[in-house]
Design brief:
Its main location: mitochondrion. This is FAST kinase domain-containing protein 1, mitochondrial. This protein is mainly alpha-helical. The chain is built from 43 helices and 7 strands. The N and C termini lie far apart (about 85 Å).
Length: about 850
């Protein structure tokens, strides 16, 4: 079908507008069924070949290759044929005779047949197309843009000219294929205004196009990935098209779509489940290295242990046939699933080692990171990697590349920090984003930690570099004037250096730009504050007011992020009730459109804020929803899986304790017992100290229980019972005590014993030590989860005593007598009425 379409494309100009004489050469070309036949026709008719013949011959040669699976293509063989050179010479001599369609098609086909972009033929075709660019038809313009993109000219003045033309003609583009191609090619140059215009036009064309053409929405995803813009409504529309095409998708397309979703941080349960089933169906037919690699990378992270083992066994058998790129892809996939298949790792490492000269800097960085995270031990390979990475670093002038190479070099064992590394980093640091600066700081911290020479001398190189980082970071923040760009840089910052050196300045900068906070950037700002655990009431008040005002403009998926800082950091703005009400009203009609795990996280977040929307709770604890959730948990990353299960348990507990009228059963007993068994029972030195002091204050260690597990599986640091006269009551048997090594000696503890009736007037007291994690980093403001635990323990009948770390470790409490007096005041106060 593609071959005929290509030939027809060649003929449409020849046959246009009237009767033509019979063209025997053209008929012979049309009758060819293999490359050799095409070359035979070319060789016998060199003198007769017109520009149309040349165009048609080149088109057919590409169609022959295109129709083959990627691993069976013979482009290099075709390119090296003597008659292919004839076609190249003829094409170059006849450029002036080509019409616009033919000119761009010729360029496209020669590039697909691996003619070097620096070849004079390609250069002249590009130059001629540039001269005609203003009158090129949109179809040819999109193909020409694609050719420029393939030549890494995506930021060239020529691509800028194309971007301007597209901007002017956007409303007249009615073909989703043409528009999506132009969007991808011009993505490096689009302004926010043109971006929004692209999205609006694409949204319309996706509704009107044939949904069988799934490559169009795939290119839309590529555009969004390139501009780092996750437009949820457009993503969901593309996702629906993919879902309708699941039976037609092969492993390669699913691999590409899954990768784009990961880049855009878009997760759709229905697509992942459908893709998983489709990939399982393709296992038996994916027997060659090319298709199997795509299948493995897409399927392994969401496959069951049995399927994953089968995939690894097949990979082991195919490993010797892998190309350099396929070995890289499998290494990254094995790191993602944390494989411990040493035999397979050794085989892939061999392929990598013999192809080290092929890899580009970013590819070698990915390989190094994968091997490091897999804890793969191969000194010879790691030494070679280090040497090559340093050579790349010394030659690189691209800031992002320098930072990536520096980061992975810090992962490799080395005796000391190489001067070549620091000098290269110093040359690019002024151009680095905030996230890149934090990456450098983390690399320096690793070198200092691993290099024993720094323990005995002042690490002047590192000190100088850190001082430069500090200066550049502050300058970048002080010069920032666009909130959206700043939030993009802050999205991935982390580490002690940023928190100590730049966090306060970042908050001041955000407050300076507070008027730029709007419905579009509210979720990112909220996530940053939550991730930094930084309490800033002016920014949070602004988030609340914007959310209330523009709640209908905030994407459904962003409501969870918008509410997080208020629930996590326990902040009730003046409009708190209104904020929660508008958010609940916004998402409630769309409950069924949420991925199950996202809905669980949202409901838990609201529960922390003491908010239990009945419709949401009943939906989550319905049999149908829990079934969907179980199916989704099978395909989620292990960390997300574990977090979702924990949040469901905590939500179940909160609903049982606070909303008994909902009649939701407690069904996490077994889960909690398993989690308890996995606990290590370690206690901090401070807790050991408090335990000893409590024994003295209460009149004996037998009056204190340690690490008490309550009904619904809360763990209380210490428990004691006071009678109606506030006198401690000893336990008949102390089931849990702290050993000399700081371990809790777990005895058999019965929940029934904990629920025993207390003597009349007696009270059960829970004493919890609150470390720094219980508070916001920049204040003594207690976090939401700590208050929720206190709320629940009180429902269970406890009087809760909390010992904040900043009080216990204060100068006022610096003697044993002061600590004891502090505990007495906390424990023996009269219960509030």
């Amino acid at each position: 079908m593609f071959r005929l379409r290509g030939v027809n494309s060649c003929l449409r100009r020849l046959l246009h507008g009237g009767t033509v004489n019979r063209d025997q050469v053209l008929e012979q070309l049309r009758a060819c069924s293999a490359e050799d036949q095409v070359f035979d026709v070319v060789g016998k008719n060199k003198a007769k070949l017109t520009v149309t013949h040349v165009s048609c011959a080149v088109s057919i040669l590409w169609q022959f290759q295109r129709d083959k699976p990627a691993w069976l293509r013979t482009v290099e063989l075709t390119k090296s044929h003597s008659q292919f050179l004839t076609l190249r010479v003829l094409a170059e001599n006849k450029i002036a005779l080509m019409d616009d369609f033919m000119l761009v098609d010729m360029l496209y086909h020669f590039l697909r047949l691996h003619v070097d972009p620096h070849d004079s033929l390609v250069q002249q075709l590009v130059s001629e197309a540039w001269l005609r660019i203003d009158k090129l038809p949109l179809e040819s313009l999109s193909k020409f843009a694609n050719c420029l993109n393939d030549q890494y000219l995506h930021q060239s003045p020529l691509m800028g000219h194309i971007t301007s033309i597209v901007d002017q003609k956007l409303s007249s583009i009615d073909d989703a294929r043409i528009l999506s191609t132009l969007m991808v090619c011009t993505s490096s140059l689009v302004s926010p205004r043109l971006r929004d215009a692209f999205i609006s036009r694409t949204d319309h064309l996706l509704d009107t196009m044939d949904h069988l053409h799934y490559n169009n929405p795939r290119r839309v995803l590529q555009f969004l990935r390139n501009i780092k813009y996750s437009h949820r409504p457009l993503l969901e529309k593309c996702n629906q098209i993919f879902l309708s095409n699941i039976p037609r998708l092969d492993a390669e397309n699913i691999f590409i779509i899954v990768g784009l979703y990961q880049s855009l941080q878009f997760n759709n349960c229905d697509f992942r489940l459908a893709a998983k089933q489709r990939l399982i169906e393709l296992i038996d037919s994916s027997t060659d290295p090319f298709s199997f690699t795509k299948l493995f990378v897409a399927l392994a992270p969401m496959a069951s242990p049995e399927i994953r083992e089968g995939l690894e066994n097949t990979a082991f058998l195919l490993a010797d046939e892998l190309s350099a790129q396929q070995a890289l892809a499998l290494a990254e996939a094995l790191e993602m699933i944390q494989s411990r298949n040493l035999g397979l790792l050794n085989k892939i490492a061999l392929v990598i080692q013999r192809n080290l000269h092929i890899y580009r800097p970013m590819e070698l960085s990915k390989i190094t990171q994968a091997l490091y995270l897999l804890e793969y031990q191969n000194p010879e390979l790691l030494t070679k990697l280090r040497s090559i990475l340093i050579n790349f670093l010394q030659r690189s002038v691209i800031p992002h590349e320098v930072i990536m190479l520096t980061r992975v070099l810090s992962m490799l064992p080395c005796p000391q920090l190489d001067e070549a590394v620091t000098s290269r980093v110093e040359k690019v640091v002024a151009q680095c984003s905030l996230s890149n600066l934090t990456t450098i700081s983390l690399a320096i911290a690793k070198w200092v930690r691993n290099d024993t020479s720094y323990r005995h001398s002042t690490p002047s190189k590192c000190v100088r570099l850190l001082q430069t980082l500090n200066r550049c970071g502050h300058e970048r923040l002080q010069m920032a004037d666009r909130l959206d760009l700043l939030l993009e840089e802050l999205k991935y910052v982390s580490g002690e250096w940023f928190e100590e050196m730049l966090l306060e300045e970042s908050i001041r900068t955000l407050q300076r730009m507070i008027d730029q906070v709007n419905f579009a950037n509210v979720p990112e700002l909220a996530l940053f504050l939550t991730r930094m655990n930084h309490f800033c009431s002016p920014l949070m008040d602004r988030i609340a007011s914007v959310a209330i005002k523009d709640i209908d403009k905030i994407q459904l998926s962003a409501i969870y992020a918008t509410l997080l800082p208020f629930t996590v950091m326990n902040y009730d703005p003046a409009q708190a009730d209104e904020l929660y009400d508008v958010c609940i009203q916004r998402f409630t009609p769309h409950i069924h459109s949420f991925d199950p795990h996202v809905l669980v996280l949202l409901a838990y977040s609201l529960a922390v804020a003491d908010c239990f929307p009945e419709e949401l709770v009943r939906e989550i604890f319905s049999i149908e929803f829990l079934g969907r959730l179980d199916s989704q948990l099978e395909i989620l990353h292990d960390a997300v899986n574990m977090r979702t299960r924990l949040r469901l348990m905590e939500l179940n507990r909160a609903v049982c304790l606070q909303c008994p009228e909902f009649q939701v059963p407690w069904f996490h007993e077994g889960y909690c017992q398993q989690v308890q068994k996995r606990g290590n029972g370690n206690v901090s030195p401070v807790q050991q100290q408090i335990h000893k002091m409590l024994g003295e204050v209460l009149g004996g260690i037998s009056c204190v229980r340690v690490a008490v597990v309550t009904p619904y599986f809360y763990t209380v640091d210490f428990e004691c019972i006071l009678d109606k006269h506030l006198q401690p009551l000893p336990y008949s048997k102390s089931t849990l005590q702290i050993s000399d090594r700081g371990k809790v000696r777990w005895g058999t503890i019965s929940l029934e014993n904990i629920k025993d009736e207390l003597p009349p007037g007696a009270q059960r007291v829970a004493v919890n030590f609150l470390d720094s994690k219980s508070f916001c980093k920049n204040s003594h403001h207690m976090k939401g989860e700590v208050l929720m635990k206190k709320r629940h323990l009180e429902i269970l009948g406890y009087r809760v005593v909390q010992i904040p770390h900043f009080e216990w470790n204060s100068m006022e409490l610096s003697t044993p007598d002061a600590w004891k007096e502090y505990l007495k005041k906390k424990i023996f106060r009269e219960p509030s009425s």
